[in-house]
C-alpha cells in the first residue's frame, strides 16, 4: 500500500492525525485553486473551509478504487465553486476592470509588489473561458498532474492538455497586450 | 493546433515543474522551440505568481481547529456506537426490570428520603447508580453526579443533627467522589475571524483531555471517631475544595449546565455551613 493510500485509509477510519496530514498536504492547493477561480480572498477562504468540512463529512464513504484522493477532494472543490456561482447568480466569465484590486490587503505575508503581480495574474485568468480557467487553476494553483486534473474534472487527459495549451496561449496574448 | 504540440508543451511543462531548465526542452524540440519558448516563459511567470498565493496562517489554523473539533465529536459518536448491541439491550432490559421492580413495590419512593443508617439506603444509592449508568450524554451524567453530591450534602446536615459524626465523614467522602466523576464538558472557544467569515465550531464539545480531577478529601483522610475540632476542620477544608471544584466547573461549563452548577454551589455551601454550625453548637452531643 502506498503512503498516501495508507494515510487516506487511516483518515477514513477516523484517525485525526491522518486527516491532519491530508489537510496539510492539500490545504494550500485547494485554497489557490479556489482563489484563482473566484479572484477574491474572503470568498476563497469561505469556500476552502466548506470544502474541508464536506470532505470530512464524506470521507467515510470514499473509495480509493473509484478515484484517487486528490482528484476526489478537488472534485468537491469544483462542485463548491459551481454551487457558488449558481447561488450568486453570477456568470463565471466576467471580464474585470484591469485596475480592480482582487487581493485583500490584509495579508501581511505579501509585499505590495507581489500583490500587484497577483492582481494582474488574476485579472488575466478571469478573462479565460471557464473550462480553460478551471484547468489552469488546477494545474498551476493546485499543482495537480494532468491525469489528476482530468479525473477531478471527469474529462480525458487529451482535453485537459488542449485546454491547458489554449489557456496559456491566451494568457500570453494578454501579457503581450500589456506591454 | 495538433495534439502533438499540446503533448510536447505538456512534457516541457512537466520538466519545468520538476525544476529543469526551459532550454533543455527547447533543445529537445528545435522545430517547435520558438513558439514553445514564449509559452514556457508565460507558464513560468504564472507558476511563480500562483505559488505566491498563500492562505493566511491564522485562517489555516482556524479551519484546522474546526476540523479537529468535528473529528473528535465523530470519534465520540463512534465509541458510543461500538458498545455491543446485546450489551446495550441487556443494560436497558436490566434497568427496565430493576426500575419496574423498584417502582412496583414502592421501594424507590420509600428509599428516597432515607439516611445512611436505614435498611433502604442501599436501594436509594443503587437507583441513583442506575440513573447515572443510563445517562444518555456526558451532560446528563454531569447533572446526575451534581444532584447526587447535593443529596449527600443534604443527608450530611440530617445525620449531623442526629449526632452521627462517622456518617458525616462518609457522606463528605461521597460528595467528593461524585464531584470527581463529573465529566468535563467545556464550551468550545469561538475562534475570532476576520471579515465575513464565521466559525462553524460546534457550540459545545467534550474536551479532548480531562483536567486534573477535583480535590477529594474524605473517608481515607478522616476515619471514624474524630474529635469535633478535627471534624470541623475537615468539613471547612472540604467545603472550600468542593466549592472551588464546582466554581471551576462553572467557569468552563456550557450554558445549559450553568444553572445546575450555580444551584449546586448555593446548596452545597448552605449544607456545609449548617453541618459545621450544628457541630459547633454541640447539637450533636
Could you please describe the fold and organization of this structure?
- The complex is a heterodimer of chains A (179) and B (285).
- Chain A is mostly helical and 179 residues long.
- Helices cover 72% and strands 0% of the residues of chain A.
- The radius of gyration of chain A is 17 Å and the shape is globular.
- Chain B is built from eleven helices and two strands, in the order αααααααααββαα.
- Chain B has a two-stranded antiparallel ribbon.
- The longest helix of chain B is centred in the N-terminal third of the chain and has 26 residues, at 57-82.
- Chain B is elongated, with a radius of gyration of 33 Å.
- Classes of the chains: A mainly alpha (179), B mainly alpha (285).
- The interface between A and B is large, with 47 and 44 residues.
Q: H/E series of chain B, N to C?
A: HHHHHHHHHEEHH
Span between termini of chain B: 107 Å
Strand content of chain B: under 5%
Low-confidence stretches of chain B: 188-225
Strand order of the largest sheet of chain B: 1-2
Keywords:
heterodimer; A: mainly alpha; 72% helix; B: 285 residues; mainly alpha; two-stranded antiparallel sheet; 11 helices; elongated
Please give the structural blueprint.
The complex is a heterodimer of chains A (179) and B (285).
Chain A: H1 3-12, H2 16-38, H3 41-58, H4 69-88, H5 112-126, H6 130-141, H7 146-153, H8 157-178
Helix pairs in contact in A: 1-2, 2-3, 2-4, 2-6, 3-4, 4-7, 6-8, 7-8
Chain B: H1 3-17, H2 22-28, H3 33-51, H4 57-82, H5 85-104, H6 107-111, H7 121-134, H8 138-161, H9 165-180, E1 185-187, E2 204-206, H10 228-252, H11 258-280
Antiparallel strand pairs in B: 1-2
Helix pairs in contact in B: 1-3, 2-3, 7-8, 8-9, 8-11, 9-10, 10-11
Amino acid at each position: 500500500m502506498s503512503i498516501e493510500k495508507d494515510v487516506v485509509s487511516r483518515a477514513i477510519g477516523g484517525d485525526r492525525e491522518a486527516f491532519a496530514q491530508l489537510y496539510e498536504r492539500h490545504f494550500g492547493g485547494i485554497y489557490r485553486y479556489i482563489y484563482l477561480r473566484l479572484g477574491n480572498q474572503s470568498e476563497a477562504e469561505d469556500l476552502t473551509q466548506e470544502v474541508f468540512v464536506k470532505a470530512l463529512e464524506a470521507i467515510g464513504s470514499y473509495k480509493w478504487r473509484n478515484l484517487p484522493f486528490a482528484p476526489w477532494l478537488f472534485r468537491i472543490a469544483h462542485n463548491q465553486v459551481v454551487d457558488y456561482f449558481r447561488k450568486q447568480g453570477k456568470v463565471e466569465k466576467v471580464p474585470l476592470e484591469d485596475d480592480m484590486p482582487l487581493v485583500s490587503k490584509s495579508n501581511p505575508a505579501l509585499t505590495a509588489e507581489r500583490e500587484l503581480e497577483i492582481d494582474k495574474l488574476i485579472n488575466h485568468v478571469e478573462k479565460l473561458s471557464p473550462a480553460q480557467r478551471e484547468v489552469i487553476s488546477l494545474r498551476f494553483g493546485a499543482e495537480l498532474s494532468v491525469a489528476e486534473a482530468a479525473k477531478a474534472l471527469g474529462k480525458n487527459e487529451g482535453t485537459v492538455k488542449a485546454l491547458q495549451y489554449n489557456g496559456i496561449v491566451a494568457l500570453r496574448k494578454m501579457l503581450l497586450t500589456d506591454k | 493546433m495538433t495534439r502533438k504540440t499540446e503533448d510536447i508543451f505538456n512534457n516541457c511543462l512537466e520538466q519545468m515543474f520538476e525544476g529543469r531548465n526551459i532550454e533543455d526542452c527547447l533543445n529537445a524540440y528545435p522545430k517547435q522551440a520558438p513558439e514553445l519558448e514564449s509559452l514556457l516563459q508565460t507558464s513560468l511567470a504564472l507558476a511563480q505568481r500562483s505559488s505566491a498565493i498563500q492562505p493566511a496562517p491564522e485562517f489555516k489554523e482556524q479551519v484546522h481547529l474546526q476540523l479537529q473539533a468535528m473529528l473528535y465529536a465523530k470519534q465520540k459518536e463512534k465509541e458510543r456506537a461500538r458498545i455491543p448491541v446485546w450489551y446495550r439491550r441487556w443494560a436497558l432490559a436490566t434497568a427496565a426490570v430493576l426500575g419496574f421492580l423498584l417502582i412496583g413495590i414502592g421501594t424507590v419512593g420509600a428509599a428516597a428520603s432515607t439516611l445512611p443508617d436505614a435498611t433502604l439506603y442501599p436501594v436509594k444509592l443503587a437507583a441513583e447508580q442506575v440513573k447515572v449508568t443510563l445517562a444518555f450524554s456526558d451532560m446528563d451524567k454531569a447533572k446526575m453526579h451534581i444532584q447526587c453530591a447535593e443529596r449527600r450534602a443534604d443527608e450530611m446536615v440530617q445525620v449531623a443533627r442526629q449526632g452521627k459524626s462517622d456518617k458525616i465523614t462518609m457522606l463528605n467522602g461521597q460528595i467528593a467522589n461524585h464531584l470527581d466523576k463529573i465529566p468535563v464538558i467545556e464550551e468550545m472557544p469561538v475562534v475570532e475571524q476576520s471579515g465575513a467569515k464565521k466559525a462553524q465550531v460546534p457550540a459545545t464539545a467534550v474536551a479532548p483531555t480531562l483536567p486534573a480531577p477535583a480535590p477529594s478529601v474524605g473517608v481515607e483522610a478522616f476515619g471514624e471517631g474524630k474529635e469535633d475540632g478535627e471534624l470541623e476542620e475537615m468539613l471547612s477544608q472540604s467545603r472550600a475544595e468542593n466549592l472551588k471544584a464546582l466554581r471551576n466547573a462553572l467557569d468552563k461549563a456550557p450554558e445549559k449546565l450553568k444553572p445546575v452548577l450555580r444551584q449546586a454551589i448555593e446548596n452545597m455551601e448552605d449544607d456545609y455551613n449548617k453541618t459545621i454550625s450544628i457541630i459547633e453548637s454541640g447539637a450533636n452531643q
